[in-house]
Amino acid sequence: MNEKGLWKKGRKLTIAIQKSGRLSEKSLTLLAEAGIGLSNGSRKLVSHSSDFPLEALYLRDDDIPQYVFDGVADVGMVGENVVAEKAREVETVERLGFARCRLSLAVPRSVDYAGPSWFAGKRIATSYPRILQKYLNEQNITAEIHEISGSVEISPGIGLADSIFDIVSSGSTLISNGLKETEVVMHSEAVLIARPGLEPVKQEILDKLLFRLRAVMRSRNNKYILLNAPNEKIGEISRILPGIKSPTVMPLADPGWSSLHSVLSESEFWEVIDQLKKHGAQGILVIPIEKMIV
Ligand code: ATP
Ligand code: ZN
């Protein structure tokens, strides 16, 4: 059934999105690039998309796993750290590639740190007690966990704790609070979670949504590349260009030269460009891809 058909039957998927915070804008941008327009949640609790059978609920990120588990929302966009901490039975259906961070233990800079056993008997302040407790159990360490909801990084400075367990992205907050990161416990990024056992009509909408999101994310990670090469170098250059299949080769007006077109992933980009230049490629153009369907 196409989207209009699903729409007419009055069926839609409800997605939970962070109302206001680090995930909000990127969640809405990802949906918008997938052709699903939603209004910003800063003033509303709910909004409907006019171009896809989807409605958005704007919530605090901490509530998203519970709402998805309860069925108030069918799916949600939230950090893996929150999914792990809330430990609700929800399914992670896709990693979304934004809001990357890590959850780490940090101690005052002056500490002579030799390993995780340092934390034995210490007071650790955190907003993520469950993830921390699991780590301590795995390490066979007994420590005192102090759960606090914000500004965890200031607690050693004011004598509330000996150390902290918190989100780190650049590390500058730790440094400005006289702390140093000593153990990375978890890496996190935004993910799409879903309630297990969605009704078939909702699953069908979710599959369409995933198809679009994957096309957008793939395009973000890839670039279209065009270059000119002398004909005798086409073989070598084609082997350097990974591409989805083999590159497209088109003759130029200048005999003896061809134009090659292919797709390059962001991660191998600079390496491949260097190789191409070494093998005689000229006039290299790199263009963003809007959508990529494979
Ligand atoms: P809410 O009001 O919705 O509860 P919040 O203050 O708990 O918001 P934000 O600070 O907006 O949450 O962060 C949301 C998510 O963004 C985090 O749970 C984490 O997954 C991710 N994130 C990425 N980088 C960072 C960072 N440097 N600091 C905090 N969170 C980050
Ligand atoms: Zn929160």
Radius of gyration: 24 Å
Question: From N to C, what is the helix and strand string?
Answer: HEHEEHEHEEEHEEHEEHEHEEHE
Number of domains: 3
Per CATH, which architecture of the largest domain? Answer: 3-Layer(aba) Sandwich
What gap, in angstroms, lies between the N and C termini? 21 Å
Distinct ligands: adenosine-5'-triphosphate, zinc ion
* Structural class based on helices, strands and sheet pairing: alpha/beta
Molecular shape:
flat
Largest sheet: 6 strands, mixed
Strand content: 25-35%
Q: Using the coordinates shown, work out and report the CATH topology of the largest domain.
A: D-Maltodextrin-Binding Protein, domain 2
Top-tier CATH class of the largest domain: Alpha Beta
Q: So how many helices?
A: 9
Widest beta sheet: strand line-up: 2-3-1-4-11-5
The CATH H-level superfamily of the largest domain is Periplasmic binding protein-like II
Given as residue ranges, the uncertain stretches (5+ residues, pLDDT < 50) are none
Instruction: Say what oligomer this is.
Output: single chain
**Share of helix among residues?**
25-40%
Features:
single chain, 294 residues, alpha/beta, D-Maltodextrin-Binding Protein, domain 2, Alpha-Beta Plaits, 6-stranded mixed beta sheet, binds adenosine-5'-triphosphate, binds zinc ion
Summarize this entry quickly.
The protein has 294 residues and is of the alpha/beta class.
Structural notes for this entry:
The chain is α/β, with parallel strands linked by helices and 294 residues long. It is built from 9 helices and 15 strands. A 6-stranded mixed sheet has the order 2-3-1-4-11-5, with helices on both faces. It is flat. Zinc ion (ZN) binds next to loops.
